[in-house]
Amino acid sequence: MKLYAWAVLVGGLGGGLLTAAVDGVRGQAAPAPLVELKQNYPNPFNPATTIPFILSGDLFANGHRPKVSLTIYNVLAQVVAVPILQGTGEELTNRELTCTPVAGVCAFTAYWNGNVLNTDREAASGVYIYQLVVDGRRFTKKMIVMK
């Protein structure tokens, strides 16, 4: 991973792009992320989409059940929908998940039928933001509804 920052020279005009590698010690693999929010598919979509996410088995250590929410917002930051967890049909609002990790991870998928919250009305074409919250940590991505 590379970080970029604009640097302004002290006492003068000018700037440049600084690049710093933050991969850690060379030759060592970075630890697997505890939470990975994946891109929805299909994207763009109409009328429905699937949103995959992965939780590390470490989150379930010692019987811990992470609290998970998934919310879809429009570009005005208004709540549009709350997807359901595939397999259970439960809305993903402060849901305490359980899992037996396979190869150290737990894979989940959420489903959104494309309807606006508590209505039978389909969401309008446009860009939407989906945000996964796991034990208070937020992860965000964009999706497109195309009619």
Describe the structure.
The two termini are 36 Å apart. The chain has one domain: Immunoglobulin-like. It is built from no helices and eleven strands. With 147 residues, the protein is mainly β. It has strands at 2-8, 15-21, 35-37, 49-56, 67-73, 79-81, 84-85, 95-96, 105-112, 126-134, 137-145. Strand 1 (2-8) and strand 2 (15-21) form a beta hairpin. Strands 5, 6, 8, 10 and 11 form a five-stranded antiparallel β-sheet that branches. Strands 3-4-9-7 form a four-stranded antiparallel β-sheet, with no helix packed on it.
Condensed summary:
By secondary structure, the chain is mainly beta. 0% of the residues lie in helices and 44% in strands.
CATH architectural name: Sandwich
Q: Provide the structure class.
A: mainly beta
Q: Count the domains.
A: 1
Number of helices: 0
β-strand percent reads 35-45%
| Total beta strand runs | 11
Q: Provide the helix percentage.
A: under 10%
Choose one word for the global shape: globular
At the first level of CATH, the class is Mainly Beta
Please give the structural blueprint:
Layout: E1 2-8, E2 15-21, E3 35-37, E4 49-56, E5 67-73, E6 79-81, E7 84-85, E8 95-96, E9 105-112, E10 126-134, E11 137-145
